[in-house]
Structure formats: structure tokens, C-alpha cells
């Protein structure tokens, strides 16, 4: 499969290019079709690069997208137009953005995940199992930490963890999430899912889900120490997409969790 990278000179895009050029992905059936970038194109050497998205979609079998929500919506429409498979790791998508992905997925296969890490997706599976078994007499708190340049919060992964826990208990996260605690907040309401955030330095990513009851606490934690794991996860998803029917898939589908 020919792989196109949008935002190829971005934080994760650069890692994807490096992985494809230096790893053993060719043996797994992946080759680099090229990249899309808005700026500094003349500085990018060694592979095809364009500032016209249509050119990249036309020459690619699968596009990998770790960009911004507004870009991802456009890429979903282009994927549908050019019949190109899509792997989306963009965070901060709204419900309307996700609806656009679902529309495109009627015509092309799409893997969409807030986090491409294998470990995080195992964490998601575990959180669902624990939340179902420990009902709302156990409080749930989710902590996440990222580098100082991350622009959205809570992270897409933290929200996915919260959604997984809420769904496992038969609820909608919208009805349970608590994002703001300041001043006289009153006692904690039963069943709520609390979120707390840290931003600073070069933290790659940390997520901690706590289940708390009277006299005991269970914690499930994942810490990322190298961003290359997100690139490797996205490329693994790309190999999995080969010959897949149209549909919106998750990394849990890819990993058979």
C-alpha cells in the first residue's frame, strides 16, 4: 500500500516519514507515497511532497492524518472522493466532526482513534471491564498530562477513557463528566466522572484512571515515553486496512480487543 502523510513536517508527521523510510514497513507491504505540507516545502528532501492535498490523495492507497480537526474533516471528504483509506489520530474532534468521518466511512474504510498506542488501547479495554464490575459506588477520576504545546484538553484519550467507563455503566459521558472544580463545589455527586489536566515541559503523554471507594483505590495507568509509538501504531493500522470493507473502525478493531 502507498501511504500518504498529511502534515508531513509536523510533530507526528515527521516521525511517520522517518519510520516509513528507516523501518521494516516495506516488508509489511507499506511504502511512502509522499507528504502534504503547507510551509517550508522547499526544505523537505528525499520524497514527493506537495501543497495540494488532491495530488497526495490521488497517488495514495491510505492517508495518515495527525493534524487539526478542521483539516481532518476536509481529509475525510477527500478520502471519500478519491476512494482512499484513512487513518485518523487527530484529537479534539467535535461530534459534528465525527459525523463527517461516519459519512465518509460509508464509502471508504477509516480507522479513527484518539490514541494509536497499543498500550493505551489495552488500557481502554481494561477500564471498560473494571467500570462494569465496579458500579457507581466506586468513584472514577481521570488524570492526564501532556507537553506544554498541546492545544486541546482534556486529551482525546482521556475523553475516550471516560466514554468507555460511562458506556460500561450504561450512561452517556455528557451526563457524568465533571471538568471544572473551583470554589465551593459541594460534595462529590455519585456516579460522576472527574477529569484533571496537567500541561508542561516535554511530557509525551500520561493517563491515569482511578477507581475509588471507601477504604481502597484501584489505579490503571499508562505512560508514553516516546512519540514513535503513535507513528508505529498508525502504520500498523494502515497495514490492517488493506482490503477492508468501508466502515469506521477503531484501534480496538485493529488489535482485536
Structure in words:
The protein has about 260 residues and is an alpha/beta fold. Helices cover about 35% and strands about 25% of the residues. The protein starts with a strand and ends with a helix. The strands form two sheets. The chain has a seven-stranded parallel β-sheet with strand order 3-2-1-4-5-6-12, with helices on both faces. It has helices at about 10-20, 55-60, 70-80, 95-105, 120-135, 155-170, 175, 230-240, 250-255; strands at about 1-5, 30-35, 50, 60-65, 85-90, 110, 140-145, 175-180, 195-200, 205-215, 215-225, 245-250. It has nine helices and twelve strands. The protein is elongated, with a radius of gyration of 19 Å. About 35% of the residues are buried. The mean pLDDT is about 95. It folds into two domains: about 1-110 and about 225-255, NAD(P)-binding Rossmann-like Domain (Rossmann fold, 3-Layer(aba) Sandwich), CATH 3.40.50; about 120-225, 2-Layer Sandwich (Dihydrodipicolinate Reductase, domain 2).
Summarize the structure.
This protein is α/β, with parallel strands linked by helices and 257 residues long. Helices cover 36% and strands 25% of the residues.
Amino acid at each position: 500500500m502507498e501511504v500518504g502523510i498529511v502534515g508531513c513536517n509536523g510533530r507526528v508527521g515527521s516521525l511517520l516519514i522517518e519510520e516509513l523510510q528507516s523501518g521494516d514497513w516495506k516488508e509489511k507491504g507499506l511504502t511512502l507515497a509522499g507528504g502534504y505540507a503547507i510551509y517550508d516545502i522547499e526544505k523537505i528532501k528525499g520524497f514527493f511532497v506537495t501543497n495540494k492535498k488532491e495530488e497526495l490523495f490521488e497517488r495514495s492507497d491510505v492517508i495518515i492524518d495527525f493534524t487539526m480537526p478542521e483539516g481532518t474533516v476536509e481529509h475525510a471528504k477527500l478520502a471519500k472522493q478519491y476512494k482512499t483509506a484513512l487513518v485518523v489520530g487527530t484529537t479534539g474532534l467535535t461530534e459534528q466532526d465525527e459525523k463527517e468521518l461516519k459519512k465518509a466511512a460509508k464509502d471508504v474504510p477509516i480507522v479513527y482513534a484518539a490514541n494509536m498506542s497499543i498500550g493505551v488501547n489495552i488500557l481502554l479495554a481494561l477500564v471498560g471491564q473494571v467500570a462494569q464490575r465496579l458500579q457507581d459506588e466506586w468513584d472514577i477520576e481521570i488524570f492526564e498530562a501532556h507537553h506544554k504545546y498541546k492545544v486541546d484538553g482534556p486529551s482525546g484519550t482521556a475523553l475516550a477513557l471516560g466514554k468507555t467507563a460511562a458506556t460500561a455503566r450504561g450512561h452517556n459521558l455528557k451526563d457524568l463528566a465533571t471538568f471544572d472544580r473551583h470554589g465551593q463545589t459541594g460534595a462529590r455527586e455519585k456516579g460522576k466522572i472527574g477529569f484533571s489536566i496537567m500541561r508542561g515541559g516535554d511530557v509525551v503523554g500520561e493517563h491515569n484512571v482511578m477507581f475509588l471507594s471507601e477504604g481502597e483505590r484501584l489505579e490503571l495507568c499508562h505512560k508514553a515515553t516516546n512519540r514513535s509509538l503513535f507513528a508505529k501504531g498508525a502504520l500498523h493500522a494502515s497495514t490492517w486496512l488493506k482490503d477492508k470493507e468501508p466502515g469506521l473502525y477503531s484501534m480496538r478493531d485493529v488489535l482485536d480487543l
